[in-house]
Give the backbone structure.
Amino acid sequence: MVCVCVALAGPALVWAQQPAPQQQDEFVPIDELPAQDQLPAAPLLVAAYSFVALALFAYVVSVARRMATVQRELERLESDLKRSGRT
Amino acid sequence: MQKWFTPAAVVCGLMLAVAPLLIAQAPYESTMGLVQKIFYVHLPSAWVFLLSAIVCGVASIRYLSGGNPRHDRTAWAAAELVVLFGAITLITGPLWARKAWGVWWLWDVRLTSSLMGWMVAIAYMLLRKYGGPGSDKLGAGLALFGMANVPFIYISVNYWRTIHPTTNVVPTLPTSFGLPLWFSAVTFLLMFVLLLRLRVGLEEQRARLDALYLVTDE
């Protein structure tokens, strides 16, 4: 019975402990907020899209450079083998 | 390179050009506003991140069971894409969270398990690069852990208490949000296929090079 009472009273206690919503009695322009509370979305959005573009571009360039290096090495080896008549 | 590669690359390039227009036209979300538009790159990159981990794991299982080096090359290429798309997911997510949640990072189950999946891929890459002989089999074993983590990452938001949106958000999206998302998702998927093919091509060239070195050494 005690457990049932506690279980029933629990949510009511939690509700009672929540701060009541404050009634707004003034409007504050956003530029009057402290600097840490002013967080424009645009720089975050630009940073996200720039990072995606840069990461993909850098990866494609990296793979292309590695492929070019391997291709050069392959061509060098193949010409060496042809010269020595071992192909 | 296969015949389909160049036309697919052109289509992917066009889709990459069109995607920002669709994203710009999508409406602002009511509570998050402009910053919610990060969603259109964050979610597709997260999906491709998980897909890459699955491809890496499946290719590793096939390599361990059959020993075909082609599967090992696919696993290695996919692991690199796990690192790439994982980095995109793990960078764009905090940029969105800073505005939407007020913090850059939370050690909740979705974020932590995603970071863990990404670190498994980094470990795989390091092992393959510096592990020496036998690292292919050891790496394949590690890739299985990376793949096993994928369903955990996906369902975690539905079972644990977290501030991250659940998997129910996407099926209930209105068309105005859904169209740019699915367009972006198809673009990322096509990009994944192209990058995987390109990266596997590099491994094939390296295999040819190794074979030629063996011939010259004989």
Observations:
- Residues 41-87 of chain A form one domain.
- Residues 65 and 71 of chain A are 10 Å apart (CA to CA).
- Chain A is about 70% helix and 0% strand.
